[in-house]
């Protein structure tokens, strides 16, 4: 995935100059380049310039070492320096945004209404697009099952288009968790959908198309 992440600039996000001294290390993110859910957490860390280690699972995701910090054997996983760990990308994103809210960019819109809208877009994406993304690349029991999964992705994207403000970000003037969640997954949409299924996630969605151009800058 790292190759087609380059198409949108996800893999090329550079770490902002560190805002903390090296002795202020604040944990480790375990990720894989093929994981869009990992990529969203990595994006926040790099954009904020946090002194957080980013590494791949030790001896694989099903190894005893990884299962000790990620009981489901998945990525991403975030381990704090005190030994506590957390799983699930939205929980990790929420933690990073809350814990380092004083470090720009904040990734949180200015008002409760906009913050709720950003969280809503994240959930729409994850519960309708993200949960069905396997339809783009996994073996399926039938063509009908694959098409059903792709249709759910289409509907999720249509709802995101409805709520996207593209002014220039998803929910206004500032980068938010909504932008990160959708942008990290757009590598799949840009690479897989036109090549294998003949449609582009931006077709018929002018606000998402405008937003995507801005996010790639």
From TrEMBL:
<dbReference type="Pfam" id="PF13417">
    <property type="entry name" value="GST_N_3"/>
</dbReference>
<feature type="domain" description="GST N-terminal">
    <location>
        <begin position="25"/>
        <end position="104"/>
    </location>
</feature>
<protein>
    <recommendedName>
        <fullName>Glutathione transferase</fullName>
    </recommendedName>
</protein>
<dbReference type="InterPro" id="IPR050983">
    <property type="entry name" value="GST_Omega/HSP26"/>
</dbReference>
<dbReference type="InterPro" id="IPR036249">
    <property type="entry name" value="Thioredoxin-like_sf"/>
</dbReference>
<dbReference type="GO" id="GO:0005737">
    <property type="term" value="C:cytoplasm"/>
</dbReference>
<dbReference type="InterPro" id="IPR004045">
    <property type="entry name" value="Glutathione_S-Trfase_N"/>
</dbReference>
<dbReference type="InterPro" id="IPR040079">
    <property type="entry name" value="Glutathione_S-Trfase"/>
</dbReference>
<dbReference type="InterPro" id="IPR010987">
    <property type="entry name" value="Glutathione-S-Trfase_C-like"/>
</dbReference>
<dbReference type="InterPro" id="IPR036282">
    <property type="entry name" value="Glutathione-S-Trfase_C_sf"/>
</dbReference>
<feature type="domain" description="GST C-terminal">
    <location>
        <begin position="111"/>
        <end position="217"/>
    </location>
</feature>
<dbReference type="Pfam" id="PF13410">
    <property type="entry name" value="GST_C_2"/>
</dbReference>
